[in-house]
Amino acid sequence: METAPHVEGNRSSDRVFLHLLLKDGETIRIYLWGNIAASFRERWNKSEVKPTVLLLTTVNPKTIGATVSLSSTSSTRLFFDTDVDETKQFLTW
Questions:
Q1: How far apart are CA 63 and CA 40, in angstroms?
Q2: Which residues contact 84 (CB under 8 A, 6 or more apart)?
């Protein structure tokens, strides 16, 4: 997470692969591409306390074997912890 995104022309060729282990033991793979990956990397590196809630919208879901994979699209939005009211409510639930 410490390397800067590589930019080709107007587009970032950055990518971030996350493997999240859920409470029930299931693993979800998240693939972030381009500008959303660069945005994630920048926000993650700047955060003093690492986020506990990651909210992604408009992702492309796939099941590969028994694993769920979510890939970002050009319209994916990324929110951390208290960026939106719903995550604030979740954190206090």
A1: 23
A2: 55
DSSP 34: H
Task: Tell me the three state secondary structure of residue 67.
Answer: strand
Element (DSSP H or E) covering residue 87? helix 85-92
- Tokens 């060729």 identify what position? 13
pLDDT per residue as tens digits for the range 4-30: 545 556 555 789 999 888 778 888 999
Please give the single-letter amino acid code of residue 84: V
- Rg over CA atoms, the chain: 14
- Token pair, residue 18, equals 């996350």
Helix (H) or strand (E) holding 92, with range, is helix 85-92
**Predicted structure pTM score:** 0.71
